[in-house]
Amino acid sequence: MSINRVCISGNLTRDPVLRSTSGGMSVLSMGVAVNDRRKNQQTGQWEDYPNFVDCTMFGNRPASVARFLSKGTKVAIEGKLRWSQWQAKDG
User: How far is CA 51 from each of CA 7, 12, 29, rounded to the nearest angstrom?
Assistant: First the structure.
């Protein structure tokens, strides 16, 4: 059995973008910064290393949620992971 479930909490890196599919379904796209805290072996100090996660919300909720979110807002997101990658036109 496999379980694909993730919980992240962090801050929005930009204002969310709300759009609709041709079928009328709402889609909300947002970027979330999540810090990973590690001890620097050279200095002995704890340092934050940011991870940037692109999140997309589908269905009925995005339209109502979008009006409360803006860049810098603290969010907690529960969902599942989907891997995607792309290559820039210039290589």
Answer: 14, 12, 17
